[in-house]
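Need tokens for this chain, all 207 residues.
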Amino acid sequence: MARYTGPVCRQCRREGMKLYLKGEKCITKCTVERRPSPPGMHQQRRRKVSDFALQLREKQKARRMYGVLERQMKNTFEKALETKGATGDQLLVLLETRLDNVVYRSGFAKSRAQARQVVGHRHIEVNGHVASIPSRRVRAGDLVTVREPSRALQYFKDALAWAKTQPRPGWLEVDPDSYTTRMVTTPTRDQIETQVDTQLIVEHYSR
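Here are the structure tokens for all 207 residues:
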């Protein structure tokens, strides 16, 4: 399955909420606020929603929010199954501790898609080593930094100002001036603000 390359605002409208896929534009110019109805010509037709449809929508919402493909999502779910604790909670923890998400949460990218590009272009180091795989898992104690040569780029000069204005989760310790982020602890479900019903996702993959 190829990555979606169409208008991302359609995805937000389909899920009925902001997924923050366009970064700053989601705050200043949000399509969902102007057109809250789902995309398509039959969006107004009422129909009974099945349990499968509810489970699918919740899974798609999480996939689109974190920008992962179906195979990546399923592999992450299987890893969550093998991890001690509630499967749904562990699934969110695994998604939240992806390197691209950590870069996004730190404020060095305005969206997860932008964070994946930053990582893929080798602008990020983890514990002093260049990291170019967005799905790489960041663990408690890891230090994520913007590479020294990359800090002179205009993008990161702008990102510095953005990072200073953004709220950060309690499990990350961010120093924008030095372009560094340390994961102080593995996040718990209570620290993850993602609005998804993980139980529905577990039920979907457990069919």
